[in-house]
Amino acid sequence: GCYDDATFEEISLEAMARPRNEKSVEYRHIRLKNGLRAMLISDPETDKSAAAVDVRVGFLSDPADLPGLAHFTEHMLFYSSEKYPEEDEYSKFISEHGGFCNAFTSTEDTNYHFDVNSGDFEAALDRFAQFFVAPLISKDGVGREIKAVNSENSKNLNNDVWRNMQLWRHLAKKDHPFHKFGTGNLETLKSDPEAKGIDTHEEMLKFYSANYSANLMTLAVYSKFPMDDLERMVVTKFNKVKTLGKEANVFDDTPFDPREHQCKLAKVVPIRNVHALDFQWLTPPDGKVYRHMPMDYMSHLIGHEGDGSILKRLKDLKWATSLSAGPSPESYSSHSLFLISIELTDEGNSHVPEVSKIVFQYLNMLRDEGIQPWIFEELKSIGETKFNFRDKQNAGYYTRELASGMHLYPCKDLLLGLHHVPQEYNEDTIQAVLDCMTVDKVRMMWLSKTHKGKVTDVEPWYGTEFGMDSLEESLVEDLRTCGRSEHLRLPYQNQFIPTNFDLIEKEDSVKEVPEMIYESEMSELWYKPDTLFGTPKGQVYLSVISPECYCSPEAAVCTNLYTKMLVDSMNEVTYYAEVAGLGYSIQSTTVGIQLVFAGYSHKLLDLVEEVIKRLLAFKPKLERYEVLKELMQKDFENTRFDQPYQQAIYATSILCLQKKWHIKEYLEVLKHLTFQDFEVFLGRIMQRVSNQVMILGNLTKTQCVGFVKTMEGILGSNGTRAIFGSQFPEKRVVQLEGGRDYVYSQPVGNEEEENGAVNIMFQIGRDSFKRNTLMQLWVQIAERAAFHTLRSVEQIGYIVCVMGWDSHQVKNVYFILQSSSHHPSSIDASVEKFLVSFKTRLAEMEEKEFEDQKSSLEQVKLEKLKSLGQESKRYWKEIDESAFSFKRQELEVEELKKLTREELLEFHQTYFEVGSANRRKLSIHMVSHKMPNPEGDGKSDAAVIEDVHKFKRTMHVIPCAFAADNR
């Protein structure tokens, strides 16, 4: 294991800025002899390890006649290598050792990353390094994987986000790399090249050897191993990556022609029913001025939602429902793009010139007022607080960000740059961004179905219908001379910025799990101080249970609308809190209303009390009711454009949950709902309630009990009483009949969608620690095996997923697949065939592999929590489902250790094998309108569900689980 010191050099990190709360983490930065730079992070506290390589080449470097080649190359590196020739060996190794791996290709980067249980890190890193040392890119693999790339592209074809991104690119100089299509499909990677006599496989080998050069790669590794061990692993595994010593490709010249592409408006027909108005400007490259963060300053002001903001003015006029502003995803190193995106109401859609005028009046106000040092200082203070008290991130995500950041920021500023912490006030760089944002340089995009039939151009890759014109002279003149508006001004100083970060005194007998510290007729309070993270943050979960909220489709719609109107009515206040790091959400549930608050503990309870007071004093306004009802209706209508696999999961929940209203019913309700109906309903919601409260973090028992009593006082003065025991809503699940298969087939919602999907559910049964772990172990092994068989070999489609799924403490296994080439009934048959072969795999499994699989699962289950938010989610699920198994992980691991191979095989035979009396299978088939019917009569032995309600009425339901079941 000896290696020569001359193979690398260490680069000093003395000045690197680091978070205050990172006590035991060490960083080291080295450059190998071949030019590859690596950031090594040793954190003795982590139990997951991770690595990422970012190669400085992306789809802007695709050859002109092979669009999608960089992305296709990224797919192929996962197949195999000279050292590990077995196909899919890397992915299989990662997923069987508690890990996750992925990659993505962007404009100038291809980023590969994984995380894994720490004990298996060196073996995983060895496999990973081979991507860059000696991959085997086989002709046969290329022939198959082309279908996965095509399938990945087909899932994006009806997605407005992808369509719009490509349209922005399309509306650029034809010969500029910015104009390219990066995903690739069968046409660009197979039929076109074949017609021109180009061999895609050969070209890929050339592309790889021309661009995958060590000096263009950055590597980040994060693990608990001592620093010298990490250094040894990296040096010995990555010093064999070859180097060409070439410079990264640079794309300096501007992608737009001022005459052709600026001061223009593109009218676009979207897929979803939505109206939106986007403004885009080319601005100086953001990366070079990261210390000043000019884009963050601009997006803070333009995207503000308090009084005096663009959004507040547009809302008052009933013209818009949301606005976002910031760097556009199409930005790259030589050019940044700033994007303002406004979602319009139907009324706003007929006032586009006036909406545009308000945007330019706001920009004029910013020019008039000048760049404000106090605003920069506020952002800097918020940024530094967030940086110093940041939560631990998922290891794989963290290394992925670090590796790409190493191309952008010098090491001393790497962490600050990645966390967007402004460091130096510089009026000129902010002014330079504002100077670009003129009428003459704007590119506008107006999305609305109302353009259908009036525009004649079609974008070639996604088929987006659009029309591009110069802005009308009169409008340009109007926008140039629109001056200022008395309704628009800078935000106020933020009162929610925390200044006290003291931690509460630790009590002597601290519980490791939440305990109930207060109980009354109306409320239960579960509490746990922060014992793990030592951070000045808190989390408050509050479920207001009301029998009125979900008693009918009308009630569910009104409750949902009520929560949306509440959030909307408080936005001017709560937006300041959110900017300062205090987040909150209000959502309707099947039992009532759930509120979640999270952030710095200093002002957290102030926010909670403010929100609860406003919630009870809430008086709906007719004009906001109309706007939000319209928005809700569009949201419901647009679910038919969801991905087919999402529609399949939704259909599963409709069939399996005893009480669940359908979106179609909600749309019926909205047709007839009046403002008067709504007001009457609001009077009923809070008549009788029960509160479940959970508070975690840097707050004392006294504070928490005091808060719940205050809340009960506010409710009492409002005339609210506690609900009766008999009124508690029940969450029940339909029990499928043992030994029977059911199938429910539906057309996909969108006629233009070429993909169909299946969700094949096997119902396992009620929560029981032993059976839960058997299911988790089965899924862990089946997941990769299914991916290999059904995606890599059979190429059914890009989305192939096996997972455990809980519905109200009832455990299920889902097989989720989406395909544009295979009919759902043939996918179903493939899954059955897979299950037969998988039984053999389990029967032949060696004892050693079985024990390895168990130990991987154990490590996943006992993985340390990374943040207070993650801890809260885990405990809240136990409270919300009335399971109260706060030590579930440890108790399940005790069961896991005892499991035998025979038990796992028996589990398979009981729940998955055809003919078993306990197999309970439900197949949801979402069929594409473009898919021909399958060969043969398509008959199987499955019971066909024609009528959902009839089906549910004739089935048993599974009893509600009680906490005692597991004890």
- Return the CATH architecture of the largest domain: 2-Layer Sandwich
Question: Could you estimate the helical fraction of the residues in percent?
Answer: 40-55%
Work out the helix count.
32
Q: Can you give the mean pLDDT?
A: 95
Specify the overall morphology: globular
Report strand %. 15-25%
Query: Could you give a short account of the major beta sheet?
Result: 7 strands, mixed
What is the subunit organization of this protein?
Answer: single chain
CATH classification class of the largest domain: Alpha Beta
CATH superfamily of the largest domain: Metalloenzyme, LuxS/M16 peptidase-like
| CA-based gyration radius | 29 Å
- Cα(first) to Cα(last) distance is 50 Å
Number of strands: 29
Q: State the low-pLDDT regions, or none.
A: 963-967
Specify the structural class. Answer: alpha+beta
**Domains (count):** 4
Looking at the structure, the CATH topology of the largest domain is Cytochrome Bc1 Complex, Chain A, domain 1
